[in-house]
Amino acid sequence: MLKLKANPTFRAKVLIPAPGETFAVEFEFKHFTRKAYGEWLTGERSKDRTYTDAVMEIAVNWFDVDAEFSRDAVDELLQNYHSAGQAILEAHATELTGAKLGN
Predict the structure, then answer these.
(1) Confidence at residue 6, expressed as pLDDT on a 0 to 100 scale
(2) pLDDT at residue 98 greater than cutoff 90
């Protein structure tokens, strides 16, 4: 049954590109209403938001990573895997907006 109020979090696989391979990491993301997501994308804070800030604002956990989810661990991930930040943000947006549903 479809509930009008969405669950506060959801899980999604994120493909993290790495030299010579790609890692599939499951993230637990926060759900945003349409209005809240629009404000998050365009609000005053969005101008100075780093990838670390953004990931910490949209994610609450990860799985199959050799460190507990924390700001320092997220920053280390983003420093070592250059495309990880964009991959995480795109996966969240795709899941949140249903963009993967297609035709």
Answers:
(1) 92
(2) no
